[in-house]
Write a structure and sequence with these properties.
With 608 residues, this protein is of the alpha+beta class. 18% of the residues lie in helices and 18% in strands. The protein is built from 15 helices and 24 strands. The chain has helices at residues 49-59, 69-72, 125-129, 145-148, 151-156, 182-185, 205-211, 229-239, 317-326, 331-341, 369-380, 410-418, 442-446, 462-465, 517-520, and strands at residues 27-36, 39-48, 62-63, 81-82, 89-90, 163-165, 193-199, 221-225, 245-249, 263-268, 272-277, 292-295, 351-355, 358-361, 392-395, 435-438, 475-476, 493-498, 504-511, 522-524, 529-532, 536-541, 553-554, 603-604. Strands 13, 15, 16, 17, 18, 19, 22 and 23 form an 8-stranded mixed sheet that branches. It has a 7-stranded mixed sheet with strand order 6-12-11-10-7-8-9, sandwiched between helices. Strands 14-21-20 form a 3-stranded antiparallel sheet. A hairpin with a 3-residue loop joins strand 10 (263-268) and strand 11. Helix 11 (369-380) packs parallel to helix 12 (410-418). The longest helix is centred in the middle third of the chain and has 12 residues, at 369-380.
Length: 608
């Protein structure tokens, strides 16, 4: 039986077929121009189409009661077919391209919005700021570590994992007490900066420069990116005013690949620090989203003349990081590899897990993507009694094409990697091992701190969704009361293997990699070759590297609780167990309209 959702009717054009493997933050051919009220901003940066829509709707919202909306886009005849139990509808109509939208006018009756501690609707800070000359732009104020807490307690006290979330504006201060903003990371209290390298996907150069302390803003800065053609030219134009900024283009020779890695290399007078995280280098990603950060110890310089494997960790982090940098085949990054070689990384307790574009055969497959995860779990974990009852969790902000059914990738090669534990291979009935996928619902986004514009950072497209309706039965809602971030939409990506009661985890991964074959790799040529399209990077936490012989971490009950829990309890940043979608829940789809219920700012979502 066909039903119309409370959020508005929407449609899919059958003429708009997509062969894209990776939806995750698809690069746009044009840059984002932040504007408001007819004034065009001078600040531009390349970004995805979904983000462009999110910023547009933040700067120029469509009010829920806006009657002029009905004249913006003419209604079209809509044919709908329902998916039983999924609570959302698809259309086979090809009368009009989906990108133009086929919308109905919003109902006039008021719809009650769930109340929570979100800030009142405010004009976009970015749009206001960018109407001013650079010299007059106000700085957003976030407490840096020196103002709010002891830096060394933050970095070393009670957090052996060195895993953090980013600060979120608009939540209770207690939930930001152990969190970091980019200005904290770049603070002189973390080290006296000599030079730095920033690896990322979406980059606002002007904003990035302003995150460095004044005394570090002219220090050498290398930006590693994957932009091409017009977007590359725009990034170069952004960087041109800054004599200290150099750009390094990551080669993306396989279609639909992205440079999605998010890493900072910070060289200090006192040593070196590595930061692997999930945030783009733009204001919105450090404001009201849930993001993850791994912050390395301060690595001291080795004595002059030291060679060989000196300064290596038990996790081989140093050699793996150098190997990753060398895949760029860049003389500039070879210099950074040499710098890393000169430092002592022996205190590192995490394993590096990366993806680099290529087609890999034989033992080369085990260096990257989900085969790298499989190898690490095989070699450095131990079998657990009744492990077939331990589920797998994947949490992400975008989804690529999974194929016609679960056997094509998700529940075959990818699941085989995720369920590996120890060297003894035991044949398991893989379909019996639960897979819980956490991805925000429409209501998660609607009721978020940002409202509907938060959906610009969740670029799951209707073209992909309509081809894999089977996938949505695996979906679970976003909820993060443990970290005070239920209303801060996730851009973090995590994967883990919890116990059946969700009190323990066998391992935890924070990474840039979304749920896509482009990010993790997919087998081809009868399983003999692994093809990866994108650059990705993450860190894997295994109990053995933290001196635990139990085979698991306990899960911390509250991420920001005091010292009443064991120091080796892992701070999972969202709620366990996850709650499965109800019959009326739908996954957030960025390129369809939501017009039947207002968001927390009283607006609708019109992706046009």
């Amino acid at each position: 039986m066909s039903q119309e959702s409370e959020h508005g009717r929407w449609t899919v054009s059958s003429s708009d077929e997509s062969t894209e493997e990776n939806d995750a933050e698809k690069p746009s051919t044009s840059s984002l121009s932040l504007s408001g009220h007819g004034k065009t901003s001078g600040s531009q940066y390349p970004c995805s189409e979904a983000r462009k829509v999110g910023q547009k709707r933040k700067a120029s919202p469509v009010k829920f009661s806006d009657k002029s909306f009905s004249t913006e886009i003419s209604p079209a005849k809509i044919q709908r077919t329902s998916q039983e139990g999924l609570g959302w509808c698809l259309s086979s109509s090809d009368e009009e391209p989906e990108s133009e939208g086929q919308l109905k006018h919003a109902q006039k009756e008021a719809v009650k919005v769930e109340k929570f501690s979100a800030p009142k609707k405010q004009p976009s800070h970015r749009c206001e700021d960018n109407e001013l000359p650079v010299s007059q732009k106000p700085e957003k104020h976030y407490k840096v570590a020196s103002e709010g807490q002891d830096t060394w307690d933050l970095l070393n006290g009670g957090n052996p994992f060195r895993f953090f979330v980013t600060k979120v504006k608009g939540i209770k201060s207690k939930y930001n007490s152990g969190a970091l903003h980019i200005k904290d990371i770049l603070s002189p209290l973390f080290g006296t900066l000599v030079s730095s390298a920033q690896f990322n996907y979406c980059i606002d150069v002007e904003w990035l420069i302003r995150q460095y302390p004044q005394e570090f803003r002219k220090k050498p800065l290398l930006i590693v990116h994957g932009e091409k053609r017009e977007s590359k030219a725009e990034l170069h134009a952004q960087a041109h005013p800054y004599e200290n900024v150099r750009l390094c283009q990551a080669k993306l020779d396989i279609a639909f690949g992205t440079h999605h890695t998010k890493m900072m290399l910070l060289l200090y007078e006192e040593g070196l620090r590595v930061v692997i995280h999930t945030s783009n280098l733009i204001d919105a990603d450090w404001d009201q989203k849930t993001q993850g950060i791994w912050l390395s110890p301060l690595y001291p310089r080795l004595p002059h003349g030291t060679t060989g494997s000196a300064g290596e960790s038990v996790t081989n982090f140093k050699s793996d990081l150098i190997l990753y940098l060398m895949t760029y085949n860049s003389p500039t990054l070879k210099e950074w590899a040499d710098i890393i070689q000169e430092h002592d990384l022996s205190e590192t307790r995490v394993y590096l897990l990366g993806s680099t574009p290529g087609r890999y055969q034989g033992n080369q497959k085990e260096k990257w993507g989900h085969f790298r995860l499989r190898k690490l779990l095989k070699e450095y974990t131990s079998p657990i009694p009744a492990q077939e009852s331990w589920p797998v969790i994947g949490q992400f902000s975008s989804i690529g094409s999974m194929g016609a059914d679960q056997s094509k990738w998700l529940c075959s090669e990818f699941q085989e990697s995720l369920i590996t534990l120890g060297g003894t291979v035991k044949t398991l009935a893989k379909p019996d091992i639960p897979i819980h996928l956490i991805y925000p619902t429409v209501d998660n986004v609607r009721q978020s701190l940002e409202g509907y514009p938060a959906g610009g950072s969740l670029p799951y497209s209707i073209q992909t969704a309509q081809k894999q309706l089977w996938l949505h039965s695996y979906f679970h809602k976003w909820s993060a009361e443990t970290s005070g971030r239920s209303h801060a939409m996730p851009h973090i990506k995590t994967y883990m293997r919890p116990s059946p009661d969700f009190q323990k985890i066998a391992w935890f991964l924070v990474t840039s990699a979304n749920l896509s074959k482009a990010a993790w790799g997919a087998l081809e040529k009868n399983g003999t070759q692994l093809m990866i399209r994108s650059y990705e990077l993450g860190v894997l936490f295994l109990p053995s590297a933290f001196g635990l012989d139990t085979g698991y971490f306990h899960v911390k009950k509250k991420m920001f609780s005091g010292s009443n829990e064991p120091v080796t309890s892992f701070p999972v940043p969202y709620d366990l167990p996850p709650e499965q979608y109800g019959s009326k829940d739908r996954p957030w789809i960025w390129n369809i309209p939501y017009t039947k219920a207002p968001d927390t700012h009283g607006n609708m979502w019109v992706p046009s």
